[in-house]
Every structure is written in C-alpha cells, then in structure tokens.
Design brief:
Blueprint (H helix, E strand, L loop, with lengths): L1 H15 L3 E8 L2 E9 L14 E3 L4 H14 L9 H4 L12 H5 L12 H9 L4 H5 L13 H11 L15 H15 L3 H13 L8 H4 L9 E3 L7 E3 L16 E3 H12 L3 E2 L2 E2 L3 H8 L3 E2 L5 E2 L4 E5 L2 E10 L2 E8 L4 E7 L6 H12 L15 H4 L4 E4 L5 E7 L2 E6 L2 E4 L1 E4 L2 E3 L5 E6 L5 E6 L2 E5 L3
Antiparallel strand pairs: 1-2, 1-14, 3-6, 4-5, 7-8, 9-10, 10-11, 11-12, 12-13, 13-14, 15-16, 15-23, 16-17, 17-18, 19-20, 20-21, 21-22, 22-23
Helix pairs in contact: 1-13, 2-8, 7-8
Protein name: Beta-lactamase family protein
Organism: Candidatus Pseudogracilibacillus intestinigallinarum
Pfam family, one: Beta-lactamase
Length: 455
C-alpha cells in the first residue's frame, strides 16, 4: 500500500507540476504514511519535511467556527443570535440572519468585492499580481484593512441578495470576516489572540502563524510559486505572499503538516485531545454534520464539508490562494486523519486526498455513474457568460452537443449526468439554476454561485 500511495502522490505532482508538497496520513493519531515531494525552495533545492510551513488558506475557516463554538459553550454567544445584534453597524443584512448563517455561507450574500479589497494592498506590492489575477488593480479600492472597513464597503456594495437566510449556499469570505468581528466582541480580545491562546498553544502548534511578519525570523518556510496565465501554464517563483489586512478569520493561517495533523485530532477524538476538552462531543458533532446542501453536491457544515467517497464519509476543508493549495480531512469511522499542503495555487488537493483514502480503505465505485445523451436543443439554454461578482467569470460554450467551460485560457469539457447537472474532469460538478419560467439564471461551480449575465 505504501508504494502505491507514493506512486499516487508522485504521479499527482508530475501531472500538476507541483514545486513542493507534503502529505501525512495518521491512524488513531499515529502517523502511518508520509510523503514529501519536490522542494520548499526549488532554486536552492531545499527539502520539505513535517515542519515546513506552507499557507493553508481557507482551512483557517474551521479554526474560526471552532472558536465560535467554544464561545457558545462558554455562554458568551449563541449561534442562533441575530447577526445584527452583534454588528449594529452592518446595514446590509437580512432580518433573521443568524450567526449560523454566516458559518454555513447561507446569509444570502452574492459575490462581493468587499473582502477582496483587503487583499489589494499586498497585491499592489506584488509585481506579478496584475497578471496572476488577470485584472488591472485599482489603487483607489485598496482601502479595506479592518473588518470595520469591510462593513462600510458592504453597506455601499450590497444591493440585493440571492436568497433568504438559509436558502442558498454561496461561499462568502465576507461572512467569515464578520465572524471575526463577533468573536472579538464576545471574547473581549483580538481574534488572533483568542485562537492562539485557546487552540494553537494548548495543542503545541508552534509552527502556525497568522502573518508573514511572524514567519520572517523563522526557518523552514516554503517559497511560493504560480502558473503563468497562458496556455503553457509554466511554473515560476513568485515570492510575495498575499494578505488581507487585519482580517484573519477567512484564510490567513500558515502552518506545517505536523501542526495541521495535530489540529485534526480535535475532530477525530470528539473534541478532546490529551485530556483537554476543546469542545464537548455534541458541539463537535454539530460542527461536523451537514447543514446545507447545494444543487451540485456541496455539503457544508460549520467551516467543514462532508464528502462521500464510495460510501465512506470524509469531513474536511481545503484552501487556495496565491502560492497555496491545501486540504485536511477526517474519516472518523476508520480512525483516519489526512492532510496535504503545497506551495502553488490551483491544485486539486481534495482529489489527491480522495484517491489516497480510497487506496488505504480499498474503496471503489459500486456502479458507474449514469450519463445523459445531451442534445443541442436541450443544452443551448446554458450557453452564456456567468459572473461570481468577485472578479471571476466563466463562459459556457456548446460544441458538438457537448458543454464546455472557458475559464481564462482553460477549456474544460463536461459530461451531463442529470437535468441541469454536469460532471467535470476532476470529479466535481456544476449545476445550473432556473427561475420559475424555466430560464437559466445562474450556475453553481466549486463553492460559488455565478449569475448568468444578460446578453
């Protein structure tokens, strides 16, 4: 099995030309497999080990929801509290929106630029950013540093909602930034201080940081890399990390594979590690269970997703930003925890985790997924341009009775498996939404909802 998994990892790194990758798998808390491919610094040929620090991006979100659940157990807040009661300055929020809705990305917010504007200052300092983001950067918009700044932008930017609270899933970094604000109000301390003192330090996670400045004096930190935004997609060294001002709760953490595996023990052991209880078992179950299901198969809990791998449930979360592709997961029934960290974005680390788990547990599909015979008349209605509202656009094209996605220079073929549902080559799905008249009005892809643009 070890040799087969090493081959899976090596082939994966070759396919995606990954500069450096770390993977660990543990059984009941004991590391059973680990793999380190490539380098933390390609030019210097510096190796990767269990203590090499990578970005983890949105894995951070589970730290945020864990903090919220800890504050609920301490009686400082309740996830059914109305958000408006905690953030009275937030004007653009629907009545009935609870903390729970922020945690599950179901507050009804469409794609916004408010959180992204917190990244702009670091992007302006990065000579590669305009090319990597594929858009010119407006210096005048780089005015968001704090959550309070972001709230002011939201009050100006939000003009409608995609659904009532709890109705629709749409991944929202703004929602998780608002959770930072609530965490600070409820705890009476900085978000970073609370997470350090209540999670990182008790677990001994001394290779985990919120900012680049914290890492500057440390050793064994990865360099970061990117793909060129053309058909060649060449890998190049692009050393500037992107930050989001003083907003940390959506994706700021950097960590080592050893530290992330240590963190996963909280979830594997029902909230208690080495005799210290972080959450009671009931709160931990609530955090890990599915709270919302999207039309394209996303099952989201509180900062964690549920995946079905040929009958086994994997609970986890990934992350991606410049220089980062990450994933962590738990297969509680098998006592497995697993994590993958890389030093380049746009790598399907989730797919590697699924393949590794399937190999360890000897899982295979029971039945071949059905396909539909797509006809031009049935699928032409999907053709058009779709916009996330965050700067991401996808063109849907029809060629030879097949639906394709055009994302920048990528041309992605799909396979129709049901009405409004198509499978992608990476085994994920897209789903189209229609209004009451049957008109296609939007598309779910990845974790986001894209509105169809009028011609």
């Amino acid at each position: 099995m070890k040799e087969q998994i090493e081959k899976i990892v090596a082939d994966f790194c070759t396919t995606y030309r990954i500069p450096g990758l770390a993977l660990q798998v543990a059984k009941n808390g004991e590391v059973m497999l680990e793999a380190y491919e490539g380098y933390r610094d390609v030019e210097q040929k510096l190796p990767i080990n269990a203590h090499t620090v990578f970005g983890v991006a949105s894995i951070t979100k589970s730290f945020t929801t864990l903090a919220i659940m800890m504050l609920q157990e301490a009686g400082k807040l309740h996830i059914d509290d109305e958000v408006k009661a905690w953030i009275p300055t937030l004007e653009k929020i629907q009545t009935g929106t609870k903390i729970h809705h922020l945690m599950t990305h179901t507050a009804g917010y469409k794609g916004l630029t408010a959180f992204h504007r917190a990244r702009l200052q670091s992007m302006l300092e990065d000579k590669d950013s305009a090319m990597l983001f594929n858009l010119p950067i407006n210096k005048a918009l780089a005015n968001v540093v704090t959550v309070e700044d972001m709230i002011a932008v939201m009050n100006e930017e939000v003009d409608s909602f995609i659904g009532i609270p709890g109705e629709k899933f749409n991944y929202s970094n703004e929602s998780y930034a608002l959770l930072q604000y609530i965490c600070e109000k409820a705890s009476g301390t900085k978000y970073t201080t609370f997470v350090r003192s209540h999670i990182l330090e008790p677990l001994g996670m001394n290779r985990t940081f919120f900012t680049v400045d914290e890492m500057n004096e440390k050793e064994n930190i990865t360099e970061i890399y990117a793909y060129t935004k053309d058909k060649a997609r060449q890998v190049f060294h692009s050393p500037t990390w992107w930050a989001s001002g003083e907003i940390y709760s959506a994706g700021a953490l950097k960590s080592s594979i050893q530290n992330i595996m240590r963190y996963l023990e909280i979830f594997q052991n029902g909230g208690t590690v080495d005799g210290k209880q972080f959450l009671n078992e009931e709160s931990m179950k609530q955090m890990m269970q599915t709270e919302i299901k999207s039309p394209h198969g996303v099952h989201y809990g509180y900062g964690l997703l549920n995946y079905n791998i040929y009958g086994e449930t994997l609970v986890g979360h990934g992350g991606g930003i410049k220089g980062v592709s990450s994933f962590m997961g738990i297969v509680k029934s098998a006592g497995l925890t697993i994590a993958v960290l890389t030093n380049i974005a746009e790598v399907p680390t989730e797919l590697l985790v699924k393949k590794t788990v399937a190999e360890i547990l000897q899982l295979s599909p029971n039945d071949e997924e059905p396909k539909m015979n797509s006809t031009y008349e049935h699928i032409i209605k999907y053709e058009g341009m779709y916009d996330s509202g965050e700067g991401q656009k996808i063109a849907v094209c029809i060629e030879n009775n097949r639906l394709y996605l055009r994302v920048q220079h990528e041309y992605i073929a799909t396979t129709q498996v049901a009405h409004n549902l198509f499978r992608l080559p990476d085994e994920k799905y897209i789903a189209f939404e229609t209004d009451r008249s049957g008109r296609v009005c939007g598309m779910y892809r990845g974790m986001r909802y894209y509105s169809k643009q009028s011609v």
